[in-house]
């Protein structure tokens, strides 16, 4: 138990010191491993068709569209240099078909105003996409700027972060796993594979073992873009010919969903990825719909902390925990900070949260440990409305571990948070002040997710 608590406590440290330590950059990968060449038609809502083609001979965007439509038996209509319709989906007053590109060494889609002047061979990827005025196409490159399309069906995968391992499980692809980092301890099927030797442990989260990864003979490796050493590992693995995808940080709900989609597409489980995304979106609609029915519901001032220390580490903006809290009627009192930040006791007083949610693994989920935590709080914490009104919640054990991981179970943390912040709306289940390994007992919208493989 002591070793397990140490391991889980370390995972909390990693989200603070890992995610805040990586400067933004695009990996300068120059390998003998070429990127797949092809073109996208994006109908919106994750409905994307990839067509492999030689962009040197399909440099013109309209020629590429014609080739893609012919390959997929789609109709299309072009009038005066403007795409009006693809496969029965027509431009209207809100949505329209436009050419979008991602330049080499970039992560960002750019809408091209003069598609007739574009040479597609100069870009990493391009798409005709159906979007509204503020929309952008579906994610198409990983965090190193490399296309996520065109990889062969994966048979032997390696994941170097717990959240990514959970994505593989949600995709029902645990049977492809041959290696993980040492902190991947969910779901049980992964642990069983680690115990029987079919899944090797290939170093820790911050320092994956290059030699052990290569020895596992994977045909696909997934790295975490929030960790500097994973950027280095991505380049090294690609240089020896191993397909490697560098995922995004998971700093908000959209990035988590993008990462699920990327993993699914890259290993050939794209349809299952869409099922997972649909399941999450349906559950999210249930939770947010219940809140939206109460038009007079007031936002709740909340502090999200990793420790109950006098000067705690708290979530600012740019964390998925803050993002999901805002979605369920929470007002993060430290949203003016970025990422996970340590604040002083005077800031705790001045921000005066109405609710405090402590995300940790340092306590057992029982009344004795909860009372011990409350009794240890500093005088500054005791001035808050959260303390005075008995609104300090301890999320620990398996629930605390889950809260550190920007993976598919974020939706379950979202429901727990919604119930904590809105007890009058979600009054079918009475929330205790401490939630641990039994966290699923306090869920309804997200209780039966099929993410355990």
UniProtKB/TrEMBL annotation:
UniProt keyword terms in alphabetical order: Signal
Gene3D superfamilies: Nitrogenase molybdenum iron protein domain
Matching PROSITE patterns: FE_B12_PBP
Classification via Pfam families: Peripla_BP_2
Domain of life: Archaea
Domain (Fe/B12 periplasmic-binding) ranges: 156-425
PANTHER family: MOLYBDATE-BINDING PROTEIN MOLA (PTHR30535:SF34), VITAMIN B12-BINDING PROTEIN (PTHR30535)
Alphabetical list of NCBIfam families matching this protein: TroA_like (NF038402)
Protein name: BtuF protein
Organism: Candidatus Methanoplasma termitum
Gene: btuF
């Amino acid at each position: 138990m002591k070793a397990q608590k140490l391991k889980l406590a370390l995972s909390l440290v990693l989200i603070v010191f890992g995610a805040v330590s990586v400067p933004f950059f695009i990996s300068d990968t120059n390998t003998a491993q070429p990127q797949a060449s092809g073109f996208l038609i994006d109908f919106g809502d994750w409905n994307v068709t990839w067509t492999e083609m030689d962009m040197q001979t399909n440099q013109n965007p309209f020629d590429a569209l014609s080739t893609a439509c012919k390959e997929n038996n789609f109709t299309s209509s072009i009038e005066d240099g403007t795409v009006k319709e693809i496969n029965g989906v027509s431009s209207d007053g809100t949505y329209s078909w436009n050419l979008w590109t991602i330049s080499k060494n970039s992560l960002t889609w750019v809408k091209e105003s003069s598609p007739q002047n574009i040479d597609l061979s100069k870009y990493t990827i391009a798409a005709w996409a159906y979007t509204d005025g503020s929309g952008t196409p579906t994610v198409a490159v990983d965090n190193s700027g490399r296309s996520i399309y065109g990889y062969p069906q994966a048979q032997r995968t390696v994941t170097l972060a717990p959240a990514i391992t959970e994505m593989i499980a949600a995709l029902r692809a645990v049977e492809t796993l041959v290696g993980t980092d040492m902190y991947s301890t969910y779901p049980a099927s992964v642990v069983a594979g680690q115990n029987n030797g079919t899944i090797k442990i290939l170093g820790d989260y911050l320092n994956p073992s290059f030699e052990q990864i290569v020895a596992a003979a994977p045909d696909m490796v997934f790295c975490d873009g929030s960790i500097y050493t994973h950027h280095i590992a991505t380049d090294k693995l690609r240089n020896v010919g191993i397909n490697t995808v560098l995922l995004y940080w998971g700093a908000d709900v959209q990035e988590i969903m993008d990462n699920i989609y990327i993993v699914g597409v890259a290993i050939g489980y794209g349809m299952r990825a869409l099922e997972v995304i649909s399941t999450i979106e349906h559950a999210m609609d249930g939770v947010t719909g219940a809140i939206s029915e109460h038009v007079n519901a007031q936002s709740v001032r909340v502090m999200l902390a990793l420790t109950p220390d006098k000067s705690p580490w708290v979530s600012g903006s740019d964390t998925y925990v803050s993002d999901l809290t805002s979605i369920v009627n929470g007002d993060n009192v430290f949203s003016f900070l970025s990422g996970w930040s340590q604040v002083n006791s005077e800031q705790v007083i001045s921000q005066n949260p109405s609710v405090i949610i402590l995300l940790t693994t340092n306590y057992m989920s029982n009344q004795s440990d909860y009372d011990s935590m409350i009794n240890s709080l500093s005088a500054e914490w005791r001035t808050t409305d959260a303390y005075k009104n008995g609104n300090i919640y301890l999320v620990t054990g398996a629930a605390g571990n889950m809260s550190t991981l920007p993976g598919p179970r974020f939706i379950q943390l979202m429901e727990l948070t919604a119930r904590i912040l809105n007890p009058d709306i979600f009054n079918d289940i009475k929330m205790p002040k401490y939630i641990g390994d039994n966290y699923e007992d306090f869920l309804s919208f997200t209780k039966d997710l099929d993410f355990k493989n």
